[in-house]
Amino acid sequence: MLDPQQPDRPDSHVDPVIEVYQQNVDRTLLLENLRLTPAERFERFVQRMKVIFELQRAGKAARSKSP
Question: Which parts of 1-67 fold into alpha helices (H)?
């Protein structure tokens, strides 16, 4: 939607598709993550990747045992 007070500003246009997607974004999680330092964010990433790798390993092990 164009801002009637500043009709020539390109950033005053609101894309309706983006607006629909933004309704489903939990901004509290984004803000919580942005409050962390880059080192803290990286540490969380590393911990989550360890969990993912363990789940992958466990899944492969379970599939190899299946008849």
Answer: 16-22, 27-34, 38-65
Count Cβ atoms below 10 Å from residue 32 Cβ, excluding itself: 10
Q: Contact 12/2 with Cβ under 8 angstroms?
A: yes
Q: What 3-state DSSP class applies to 56?
A: helix
pLDDT digits (tens, 9 = 90+) for 24-38: 888 898 999 999 999
Whether pTM exceeds 0.90: no
How far apart are the C-alpha atoms of 1 and 15, rounded to whole Å? 7
Q: b/e per residue, 13-30, with b = 16+ CB within 10 A?
A: eeeeeeeeeeeeeeeeee
Question: Residue 32 carries which side chain, given as an amino acid letter?
Answer: E
Token pair 């492969």 is at which residue? 60
Domain coordinates in residue numbering, the chain: 36-67
